[in-house]
Each structure stands twice: as C-alpha cells, then as structure tokens.
Amino acid sequence: MKELERELGYTFKNAALLKNALSHPSALAPGQGIEFERLEFLGDRVLGLVVANWLFKEFPHESEGDMAKRFTSLVRKETLVEVAKTIDLDRAMVMKRENSSSQKKRLETLLADGCEALIGALYLEGGLEAAQSFIYSYWKDYLKAANEPPGDSKSILQEWVQGQGKTHPQYVVLESSGPAHAPHFIVEVRVENLTPVQGAGSSKRLAEKEAAQRMLDLIFSHD
Predict the structure, then answer these.
(1) Which positions ≥6 away from 87 have C-beta within 8 Å?
(2) pLDDT tops 90 at residue 54
(3) Is the pTM of this model over 0.85?
C-alpha cells in the first residue's frame, strides 16, 4: 500500500479505508466484500461527476452529444484499466488470481473495479479535491488525446454496453416507407434493461445512428 501511496502522492490517514478499496471480494469470504463494492459504487459516480464537470469547462462550445461521446470514452472500462496499470494497481490489490486462458479479461475487470473503489476511497478520505486531483493527473492525457469527439453514436453505445457487461444493442427496423428516391426508415434500438428508443432517417444507417444517439442521451441523463 505504501508504494501505491507514493505513486499517488497521497497518504491515507485511514489505512483501513484504503485496505477495503484494495481488497476485491474474489479474495474474501462470502459477504465480506461489501465495503469494496460500496466504494466501487461511489467511485463510479465520483468519476462521472468529475469528468462531466471537466468536459463542461474544457469544451465550452461542444454540444451535449459530443460531450457525451468524450465522456463515454473517458469513463469506460478500458480507460480505467489503463490508469490502473499506470499506477501499478495490480501489485497493490488483494484478489483471486488464476492461470486460466480467461484470466487476462477477468483481471482487467478486477482492475477497473479496483480503480473505481480507489476513487471512492480518495473521495471519502480527502473529499472531492483529492479524488479530482487523482482523476485530473491520470486522465489528462486521455482527455487531450483526441481533438474531435471519439467515434460515432453507434460505436460509443457499443463500447458503453460492452463496458457494462450487457449483450450487444439490437437494431430493429419498425417501418420502411416512401418512394425509392426518398425512403424513410424508423429503427428501434434495444439495450438490456433499458427502455427502447427510436430513430428516423432517410437510410437504415442514419436511423440507427439517430436511435443510438437518443439511447446515449437517455443513458447519460440518468447518470
């Protein structure tokens, strides 16, 4: 834990809090991982708040949709894993380690969870300032990496769904009308445990993109 604190440039006064953030339920007896899960839950929300506020200030002229694309890229599992590797979180965490072929993917999930739990611990220990300082330090390169918002709405939705462990979005054509030179499509996108939404366009592809963007708007309006 001391090595991690040196990397973070932050020393916890409450050592038990940091220990809980680094103790994944996979390595604990049943029922003993609740504190980790609570910290992970809190850290996920703190990360979302800090990143949303950061984007709002950093890109004052961008639309909600463009900021949502950036947001998804910054809070997704893959980014959390990269940050976790940068701070060598793997060495600090207590978790179940396996040698199976699926271990790499499993390890990435554990590291992403651990990174969120660490943010939750930083928030409880040092308030929003401590959590924000960590996020600003380790997410700044990802924020500045792209001059334009990353990906289109379908790609962003796909990445979000994968990060949540849900099944792939389903696009269903509800209506196809109009003459050949001016067709009109209505497409519904369905995501596990979310209310389906619809999009319309002069092609199936455009209708799917609009539906995906509306789904993203729905998702982030509830975050």
Answers:
(1) 4, 7, 8, 138
(2) yes
(3) no
Predicted confidence (pLDDT) per residue in 96-108, tens digit? 766 655 566 778 8
Inter-residue contact 70 to 55 (CB < 8 Å): yes
Assigned token pair, 72: 């998804």
Smallest CA-to-CA distance from 125 within 49, 35, 45, 18 is with 18
Catalytic annotation, residues: 44, 116
H or E element: which one contains 147? none
- Where does the chain have alpha helices with state H? 2-8, 15-22, 34-58, 64-75, 77-86, 89-92, 103-145, 153-163, 204-221
Report CA-CA distances (Å) from 218 to 43, 68, 163. Answer: 21, 11, 17
Nearest to 4 by CA among 94, 67, 68: 94
Decide if 142 contacts 81 (C-beta within 8 A).
Answer: no
Structure tokens at 40: 């992970």
Amino acid at 91: R
Q: How far is residue 151's CA from residue 212's CA, in Å, rounded to a whole number?
A: 12
Q: What percent of the chain has pLDDT over 90?
A: 49
User: Do the bridges between strand 170-177 and strand 184-190 make them parallel or antiparallel, or are there none, so unpaired?
Assistant: antiparallel
